[in-house]
Amino acid sequence: MTLTPERARGLLEERRAILSGHFELTSGRHSDIYVQKARLLEYPETAMEFAGEIASWYPDVEVVVAPAVGAISLGFAVALAAGARAIFAERTDGRMELRRGFALEPGERALLVEDIVTTGGSAREVHELIRSAGAEVAGVAALVDRTTTPLDIPLRAVVRVEAVSWEPAACPLCARGVPFDTPGSRLLRGSALSSEASSNEGAAGVRPWPG
Question: Is there a smaller number of Cβ atoms within 10 Å at the N or the C end of the chain?
């Protein structure tokens, strides 16, 4: 069964994964909307519904590559649905690389899987990592697309969430003195593992998106 954008959005809301408040995103930008995808992925049957939809878009995938940390579980689920192996890239000394014995073979058909894409920074780095290894990039897939400008990589997402973001200096919530929460993987900046979003939740001032 095809997972329509309407059903995908409904599942995000049902799992209370769309939050409103004042957030610092992993990109460093601020927003009044945050997608806490961990609330969705904590339900394996729901995760596999999204993963199966993504896997159906790209035939003959041999390996799924996900940026750590936030996209690892989704990448694993997509690999399971696609009958492929699953690996992840980690940020070391400021750049994404494959560690832990992971490797890509020249000509191998690789699918890049992200969780939430806002600026596309991590996805762009992993895309280049795959190409530099000589593998074929089957595509770039994501759970949620919340970009505000076009990307230079072929992104396809299950659902799009329209959300404005600002540089901190231009953030109207900061100007009003509203405290911000940092629920993503910027909390892990001292670790080798980093991605566009992570799964640390429960901070004060976070409330579910109405509806």
Answer: C
The domain total for the chain is: 1
State the Cα–Cα distance between residues 61 and 108, nearest whole angstrom: 8
29: domain CATH number is: 3.40.50.2020
Single-letter code of the amino acid located at 100 = R
Characterise 94 by phi-psi region: left (phi > 0), alpha (psi -120 to 50), beta (else). Answer: left
10 Å CB burial of residue 106 (0-12, 13-18, 19+) is: exposed
Residue-number span of the structural domain to which 47 is assigned: 5-208
Mean pLDDT across the chain, nearest whole number?
A: 87
C-alpha–C-alpha distance, residues 200 and 191, integer Å: 14
Provide φ and ψ at 95, rounded to 5°: -140, 155
Q: Is the pLDDT of residue 201 over 80?
A: no
SS3 128: helix
Residues 6+ apart with CB under 8 A from 208: 16, 18, 19, 20
Task: Quote the CA–CA distance of 8 and 5 in Å, as a whole number.
Answer: 5
Tokens, residue 146: 């919340």
pTM (predicted TM-score): 0.80
Q: How far apart are CA 47 and CA 66, in angstroms?
A: 15
**Does 39 have pLDDT greater than 60?**
yes
